[in-house]
Amino acid sequence: MDRFDALILNALQDNARLTAEALSTTVGLSPDACRKRLAKLRASGIIEAEIAVLDPKSVDRGLLLIVEVSLQKERLSDIDAFKARMRAAPEVMQCYYVTGDADFVLILSAADMTDYEAFTRRHFFGDDNVLKFRSSAVMDRVKAGFALPVAPR
């Protein structure tokens, strides 16, 4: 990855809708060169997705929660099964398998506390392998995003 790739990636993290023409003025390459670099960055998997970030309140998902989950058994099959269930749950925005006191940290959205309680009944109380979970409701979203600082290698 060179300086131009890093400039393209940093610009796209601010606005994924930038055209090759707009990128060309930012990075100092022709639009065609930017298109070719974008195609390579996408094909290589460096660019995993180009998504829209929604306002949770505008789509009736105004309750955001950070949840730590501990499993009773940590066999690979149990861990993989829990990962699969969290991937399939639309409420789960992010799921991390972590070190420390908990096994997983989830970021999830709910319409309200009743909706979240239904989620816990389905995914935590309904799973014999969930030992415990601890929830924190988000009071204010100070910063949200996936931007990574990219420097040339």
Automatic annotation (TrEMBL):
Gene Ontology BP, a term: response to amino acid
GO cellular component: cytosol
Keyword Secreted: no
Pfam families: AsnC_trans_reg, HTH_AsnC-type
Domain HTH asnC-type: 1-64
GO molecular function: sequence-specific DNA binding
Record keywords, A-Z: DNA-binding, Transcription, Transcription regulation
Listed PANTHER family: LEUCINE-RESPONSIVE REGULATORY PROTEIN, TRANSCRIPTIONAL REGULATOR AZLB
Protein name: Leucine-responsive regulatory protein
Natural source organism: Tritonibacter multivorans
Gene name for this UniProt entry: lrp_5
